[in-house]
Each structure stands twice: as C-alpha cells, then as structure tokens.
Amino acid sequence: MDFAHTADKIFAVILSVLETYGITHRILSIKLDNASANTTSIALFTERNIPQARGYFFHQRCACHIINLVVQSGLKEVSNRIERIRDAISWIGSSNPRFQEFGRHCTLNGLRPRRFQTDMPVRWNSTFLMLKNCLEYDTTISGFYNMKLAESGCPPAQSLTPDDWYVVKIFVEFLQVFYNATVTLSGVYYPTSSQAIDQIVEMFDMLNTYREDDLLGHAVVAMETKFKKYWSEMPFLYALGVIVDPKIKLAGLEYLLEFIGNKLSIDYSDQIIDIRNKLFKVFCIYERRFGGVHTEPSPEPNTQPLPTSWSILKHRKKRQISKFLFFNYTICCIFWCRTE
C-alpha cells in the first residue's frame, strides 16, 4: 500500500475493499499482524460496524505469538548459558575439518557424528530444539570445545561447564510444555479455540511448579508478568470453546479461571459474569433458529491423554463427592443415635 500506514488509512482501505466486493456483512475474519496501527484500525472497525444477527466482534491475538513473548522473557534470564552453548555448536559446525575432528570424538564416545543447527534467537522454539538436540552430546561438545579453547589460549571463563548443561537441561524440560502448546495451537486442520484454555492451564501449572525453584525462579517471575499482561483477560472465544466441551462446561470454566486467578492474583469474577451474559445471548439466538431441531449424539472413543485442566476438575469433583458423602454419613449417624 503506497501511503502512510496509520490506523485511519488501514481502516479506510479495508472498508473500501469490503464495499467494492459487496461483502461488508459477510466477513468471518480479518488477519493482521501485531502492529499497534492494526490494533487501532480494528477498534475503529468494531465501533463503526454492527455485526449481523446480533453477533460479536473478536479481536483475537495469536496464542502462539503470546507464548513466544512469554518464553522470550524467560530466555533472557538464562541467556549467558545459552549463548555459550550456541557459540560452541556454531564454532564446531562452521568449519568442515573442525566438524570432521568433532565427528571422530563422537565416534570414540559411542555417538553418531552430527552437525547441529543453530537457532534463530527471535524464534524461541528454534532455541528450544537446538538445546534439546545437543543435550545428548553435552560431554562430547564440552570436551572438544574446551580442549580447543585451551589450545588457542582462550580464558577459562569461556569454557562450557557441567553447570551450564545442568541448567539448560532443566530449562528444556520446563519449556517442553510451552513447545507442546505451540505445536497444538498452530494446527490448521482442526479447531484450536477449544484447546486454548487447556494449554494455558498446562503452561500455568508448569509456571506454578517452578515458581520457587532456585535455578528458574527469576525466569518464571518474568514469564508470569508477561503471562498476566496478555491473559489477565481471558478471550471469550477461548471460553466459549471450553464451555461447549461436555467434559468441562460453564462450571468447569469458572473453576479453572478461579484456580488460575487465585495463583496469579487475577480477579476473573467480572469476566465470568460477562461470559455468562454473552453465552446466554448466543444461546437465545440459537434457540430461536434451531429450537425445534433435535439430533442424536454419536460419541466416538477418545484415546488422547487427559490434559491438566481435566485432572484439576476431576480432583474438584472427587472433593465435592467426599464432602457430600461425609455430610450424609454424619446425618445418618445422628439419626441412628436418636433412634437408639
């Protein structure tokens, strides 16, 4: 577009294209990047257009982009150790004679010679895969790299240490959940909105586990700050996707939001009320249109492992049943004593 990319200009171009093709009220979604001008243009579009059938406009941020921002804030806290490993594998692979010598060291240690791909720092998942792939070769990489540093007279401070690999190993295990969430929510051949809160709960559970960890505590604090910035207000699209899941429903969503909110000091109560109201309005629209249509369910067996959110809800249900049984047992005992 040959003009200044301001919010007003972007909005005007979008509206012009829609009017030209006569599809102003037939748009399902518009995809934009994360530029602030685009965000403002969407706000203008939302204010000046009324959705058909009393629907809603959603400005839905990309979950995988948010995960990238969350993890990048944690990577900064262990960047020194990651940088040393990145330098080592980059140096080893940058020369064919050097890599051949490294390959002989791998063979002597019973490992298959392998050239490691360096990461692209702006894409955290490439950093994760780089670290994960070279963990098996930690001793061989350190031995070869440190030997070459000593031969060239470099200071010992540049050497790789067992502590570097230990911290990276723990960090890779920690990041596995975030990588799994990125892969799941990047799917294009299946709906992902219904899985978003499940993945958010998985990531939150990992943050909660490592919050007091001596090695990763600072990284977790930085990641939680970014986590709260983007998900302190849960998107309605995610909430609706969970509500229509018969294993969770509205009550399960409320409990999951309360569970996350208590740990991160986030008050979701107003959002829950708003979600209830929007859900009721959507239900009324469907009831008017399809209230007389009934279909028989056709359940299929599910062999996928249960996500953390279901485990949390299952624990809550067991606790409620235990309270119910204890209450009834107490009443029965009192009644029995009175009859005696």
Automatic annotation (TrEMBL):
| Example of a GO MF term | DNA binding
Q: Which residues form the hAT-like transposase RNase-H fold domain?
A: 187-281
Protein name as annotated? hAT-like transposase RNase-H fold domain-containing protein
The record lists the organism as Dipteronia sinensis
Phylogenetic classification of the source organism: Eukaryota, Viridiplantae, Streptophyta, Embryophyta, Tracheophyta
